[in-house]
Amino acid sequence: MTAAEEMQGKVALVTGAGSGMGRATALALLEKGASVVALDVDEGGLLALGSHDRLVTVRCDVTDRDDVVAAAALAIATFGGIDILCASAGICRPESVVDAGAVWTATMNVNVKGTLNACQAVIPHMRARGGGSIVTWASTNAFQATPNLAAYNVSKAAVLMLTKSIAVDHAVDGIRANALCPGWVRTPMAGDLAEAYGSEEAWLASIARTQPLGLATAEAVARAAVFLASDASSMMTGSAVMVDGGLTAKSASTSPPPVRAIDMSAAAMTG
Ligand SMILES: NC(=O)c1ccc[n+]([C@@H]2O[C@H](COP(=O)([O-])OP(=O)(O)OC[C@H]3O[C@@H](n4cnc5c(N)ncnc54)[C@H](O)[C@@H]3O)[C@@H](O)[C@H]2O)c1
Prior knowledge:
Elements: E1 11-15, H1 20-31, E2 35-40, H2 43-47, E3 55-59, H3 65-79, E4 84-87, H4 102-129, E5 132-137, H5 150-170, E6 175-182, E7 185-186, H6 188-194, H7 200-210, E8 216-217, H8 218-229, E9 240-243, H9 266-270
Helix pairs in contact: 1-8, 3-4, 4-5
The structure holds nicotinamide-adenine-dinucleotide.
Nicotinamide-adenine-dinucleotide (NAD) binds next to helix 1, helix 4 and helix 6.
């Protein structure tokens, strides 16, 4: 099977397709032969995807349920159904817990309600088609709280639990749902946060200390998304898929304990 045949006949809706991992996922799905309906609020980002006979782009705000429902209807009218949802649209803005207000509301709206809106728009169509695969974008922040990112941390934990809820509610419909949990990925979103480190070098040095495989590319995460979207992951549902270069595997301790010679002689072991 060639790369272009792997997802032939599949129709995918991708949110946040105008940038970063959503963009990389839309392009990877196209390369594998799927038809793609790419959604974003950023029309320039959508335009930059280029043109393709299996690509339709739609300006869509995921916080607006009618917008997402209309995009799903367009996918069906154009390509005959929906098999895959990749819900990548998200925002990440700093705000402390005590100040939680405007950022909290916006983050919950886009990351949680936006993901829910997209899932609600596709599930009835997937059910009618006999199944489908939903890939959501949680984060290592679903497990580890980054300081001053309270809203983001909470939103990603919510996305993960939403994904598990869909998995258990809709297995009976043949619908699978899995959450990607990336660590640091080089995208415009990560670039905005990187500014807080003062320089690119300081940012990369921090990542080198905490993420053993270093900074990820959007394309590397997109390959995991395509795997979860495809039948190759047919027994996976409700999973938190760590695409984090070892970030959550690594202890926070930066200095290894000293390695001492241990006397393993029988006398030492019994005495
Ligand atoms: N970059 C990272 O290090 C990282 C790590 C873990 C998880 N994530 C998550 O991965 C996902 C993709 O992030 P990215 O790094 O590619 O970011 P990005 O900023 O490059 O892309 C996000 C896209 O979502 C779109 N978007 C924002 N609000 C929207 C809305 N209301 N409706 C429709 N589209 C909207 C933006 O216009 C943008 O094109 C996000 O959910 C993010 O939280 C990112």
